[in-house]
């Protein structure tokens, strides 16, 4: 998930522009899952930076005079893009467990999820899978089967459009195809979204890049030590939510020295650690 912090969200905005707190809506109190699209215009987003910028723009609009909401209306969003770096990425809007502003009379009972498509644009299979993931997790956490709704079921609107709505009526089945078969891609650009236990690995790679540049790495061969040292060294924060292009480019500069396949894994971490240690002993970069 791309968090609010990662896309650069502002604080929720109350009356008079003052900071405010969002109203909690505990998951156990939810009964509905409300799906949206963007609007009649197709949505084109390329790359993580465009996605972040789009989120910031949406927040400004929703908090602005035209809408006047405390924050982004949707609880969560899902990117649908031909760019494998962001395709199917879940984005935190207002957050799942707070009252939204996406459908009158359903903002406390319903979790509002926007799929980033417009008009008759086809959502990617990865985006649909991500929506389904969100739904399954929400039902599990709520302890009940949430009612699947389109925005139009609670309000007079076209939303979520002619493509998504029939899918909702069918119960949001998982698609059987993938947009981009991973093996056909250059492994360096293959999409890899870190699983929970892979965040440490991503941190390691980024920290390694930072420290190699400065030639000041003390011996450190394991992830927990690196993480412990982060605060001590005041290292730059992790800047990428996915295995993004900048990171790939930097790793490519290492050429044969760091032969990894572009997929985050324990093997990647081992290789990164080895390069780091070689550098410390004078054999490396
Ligand atoms: Zn809607």
From TrEMBL:
<dbReference type="InterPro" id="IPR002502">
    <property type="entry name" value="Amidase_domain"/>
</dbReference>
<protein>
    <submittedName>
        <fullName>ABC transporter</fullName>
    </submittedName>
</protein>
<dbReference type="GO" id="GO:0009253">
    <property type="term" value="P:peptidoglycan catabolic process"/>
</dbReference>
<dbReference type="InterPro" id="IPR006619">
    <property type="entry name" value="PGRP_domain_met/bac"/>
</dbReference>
<comment type="similarity">
    <text>Belongs to the N-acetylmuramoyl-L-alanine amidase 2 family.</text>
</comment>
<dbReference type="InterPro" id="IPR015510">
    <property type="entry name" value="PGRP"/>
</dbReference>
<dbReference type="InterPro" id="IPR036505">
    <property type="entry name" value="Amidase/PGRP_sf"/>
</dbReference>
<dbReference type="Pfam" id="PF01510">
    <property type="entry name" value="Amidase_2"/>
</dbReference>
<feature type="domain" description="Peptidoglycan recognition protein family">
    <location>
        <begin position="25"/>
        <end position="155"/>
    </location>
</feature>
<dbReference type="GO" id="GO:0008270">
    <property type="term" value="F:zinc ion binding"/>
</dbReference>
<dbReference type="GO" id="GO:0008745">
    <property type="term" value="F:N-acetylmuramoyl-L-alanine amidase activity"/>
</dbReference>
<feature type="region of interest" description="Disordered">
    <location>
        <begin position="1"/>
        <end position="23"/>
    </location>
</feature>
């Amino acid at each position: 998930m791309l968090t609010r912090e990662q896309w650069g969200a502002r604080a929720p905005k109350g009356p008079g522009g003052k900071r405010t707190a969002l109203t909690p809506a505990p998951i156990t109190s939810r009964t509905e899952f409300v799906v949206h699209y963007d609007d009649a215009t197709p949505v084109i987003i390329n790359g993580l930076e465009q996605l972040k910028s789009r989120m910031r723009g949406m927040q400004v609009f929703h908090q602005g005079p035209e809408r006047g909401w405390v924050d982004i209306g949707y609880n969560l969003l899902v990117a649908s893009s031909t760019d494998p770096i962001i395709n199917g990425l879940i984005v935190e809007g207002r957050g799942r467990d707070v009252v939204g502003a996406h459908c009158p009379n359903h903002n406390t009972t319903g979790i509002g999820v926007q799929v980033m498509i417009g008009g008759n644009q086809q959502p990617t299979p990865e985006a649909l899978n991500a929506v389904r993931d969100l739904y399954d997790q929400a039902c599990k956490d709520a302890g009940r089967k949430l009612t699947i709704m389109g925005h139009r079921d609670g309000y007079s609107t076209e939303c979520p459009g002619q493509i998504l709505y029939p899918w909702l009526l069918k119960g949001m089945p998982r698609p059987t195809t993938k947009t981009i078969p991973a093996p056909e891609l250059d492994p360096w650009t293959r999409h890899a979204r870190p699983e929970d236990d892979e965040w440490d690995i991503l941190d390691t790679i980024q920290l390694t890049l930072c420290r190699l540049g400065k030639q000041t790495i003390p011996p450190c061969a394991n992830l927990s030590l690196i993480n412990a040292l982060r605060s001590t060294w005041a290292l730059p924060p992790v800047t990428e939510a996915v295995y993004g292009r900048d990171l790939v480019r930097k790793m490519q500069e290492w050429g044969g020295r760091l032969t990894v396949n572009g997929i985050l894994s324990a093997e990647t971490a081992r290789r990164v650690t080895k390069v780091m240690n070689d550098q410390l002993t004078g054999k490396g970069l």
